[in-house]
């Protein structure tokens, strides 16, 4: 008897073959094999003349979808049908979520199997999981399929009804979406807040103090009993102190006068407060939290995170990566606790196994949270992974292990110091026991926030002490506009608002960027002027579509359909065909929407009109009897477009570019111009003889207002040849590129070796010696980290096996012993002075033996898997 197993991808097929009996054949469907038509050419001839054909859904016949096999999948379907002819049984083993269920259903509909058919699901690709899944096959869940189909139809109705309207009224190629349009509105609203923001300025004092030779700093908090103003006391829309705040607003003069008054006065510790704090580890990853942490820590986009996680899952390294669940199986908890005990010691284990529960209602639960696969967890070093796959696995491994570790015990210390009528505060933090922080620290959306594992040490202070004041500094501050969304904070907001599903966030954010609704700059999502125009139109004419609460209720209804608590057909009829349904509204509003107004973006405090044109956004102003237009540079954001910027852009169009001066050697004029990609300098005029005058973009920190003729001449001289490499004879040059200034070593046939300049280097003045120094440094790859060298606390001696030094260093969680690449913590209760070379060798040996045992187990398992695979392959060849 032979069995055909169908999964989605070739990688998954290759991995799963290792764990199935020899008479099982595994093939890949290459994802979806059937879907609604994506273009007019895919619409079947039988329905092409119907009014609803473009939708791909017959709204007049109970929203019956028209499914087609895309051209690129026809060959796959043919191959699967051929494979099925030789099978006595069919097992559909696609992913365990709604989409996977839908793929299995479509495969069943297309293949029309005449042999027994089963549905097999598993949340990790390990031998144990596959064997268990084979014994517990089930039928296709029709309710899950119906829920997914309803979701697909609803998304099609929204997208294919509103997008053509945007093409007619704003610009060709735009798109609207059930979740996408709400996400774009979130970005636009944040940018509106930034436009409305008014900067406020305030001053305070920072004191540099010392007690028993222990330095510390303190901040002014009250003056004559009244709180000193901070950024939170300002109204962001006026830049003034918010109404009702009884605070002292210090000007620069006030701060300096107070500084002079307090110098030389006696400081008195008036209060010392020590408060114990316990911090618990974060739960294991869900799809959403993985995307957030990966973006914060690894700077990976949601799309890249899901692509890499998919690869890790299909290769058998992690469990299924689309899940809203934080639950861990008993097996996973045991594996995580084993890792903690082996790597960190029993004292770092949580007293009881930690189990987490999912709080969100209607979560699309898979069996578990995202974790390392298997009943024992491979450490990142044991996987053989590299690059971004290793970085993501490392993140998942650490988070899972940390969730079974002991709490972190810390002491928050607050000291108040009185000097005349001014009260200062010094804050410190002592980590009494790092607990889970040994393994994992959760990232923060605030880049300026101190991480949990950082101690802030204060000297031993008590009430009545009089520390010495070494210096007082007057410090000026400006309030900051609301931070733009990053992918991490957008995902967090979408999930908290109940908008969409985490498994779709990656594709949604990708679409927003691909369609030109947002630019990703320094990890921030900046909405474009087109995003403003589209959001304005939808807010005015289809407010429900971009209303987060409406979209959230829609998501809940879709979940209710999946649970059998709501009927899908009445809901679709009401949403699309009802009196206030989408089709009705579009027919009503289309004639009411003026295309010229729809293409115009209304911005506060801006007399000029911003319009969306065929080639992008542009400014339009009336100049006497004529209308002047000028393109808006791509790097100019809606929040930054002010009357001054408009004046500069229009002056270039009406008067011509500003002439900075003339080149000292050629005598040609040098202009400062603003183009689609921002400001740049140009040498000479464009003419028939000189159709492409030399141009150079302005580097970071240089603006059209502060650029000098000397700098412009230097930029136009790039690339600068600095000399030749003393070893290879290759040319060394300095220049400016897309990612900033750099030096490059031309190695001939071996290619070019690039290094970015440091912040202290200047591309116009860097010397050959400095360039050679940079080129000699190891090249950093994406995601790599570099550690600063530090002095050892103690040098114990050398290792008898390799003569390598064994030293003790101070780490964020206390002192540790280092030998080569091996680090081992000093046992709690043992001081640095008590550790001898013999003790260190014993601890290093214990660590090495633990690592070897784990590696040996993994290697044995891998060897068995390989031999099983070879045996299976040999049997197939023999029987062929």
TrEMBL record:
Biased composition (Basic and acidic residues): 792-802
Keyword field contains DNA-binding: yes
Keyword Protein biosynthesis: no
Alphabetic keyword roster: DNA-binding, Isomerase, Magnesium, Metal-binding, Topoisomerase
Active-site residues annotated for this sequence: 320 (o-(5'-phospho-dna)-tyrosine intermediate)
InterPro entries xref list: Topo_IA (IPR000380), Topo_IA_2 (IPR003601), Topo_IA_AS (IPR023406), Topo_IA_cen (IPR013497), Topo_IA_cen_sub1 (IPR013824), Topo_IA_cen_sub2 (IPR013825), Topo_IA_cen_sub3 (IPR013826), Topo_IA_core_domain (IPR023405)
Function: Releases the supercoiling and torsional tension of DNA, which is introduced during the DNA replication and transcription, by transiently cleaving and rejoining one strand of the DNA duplex. Introduces a single-strand break via transesterification at a target site in duplex DNA. The scissile phosphodiester is attacked by the catalytic tyrosine of the enzyme, resulting in the formation of a DNA-(5'-phosphotyrosyl)-enzyme intermediate and the expulsion of a 3'-OH DNA strand. The free DNA strand then undergoes passage around the unbroken strand, thus removing DNA supercoils.
Assembly and oligomerization: Monomer.
Protein name: DNA topoisomerase 1
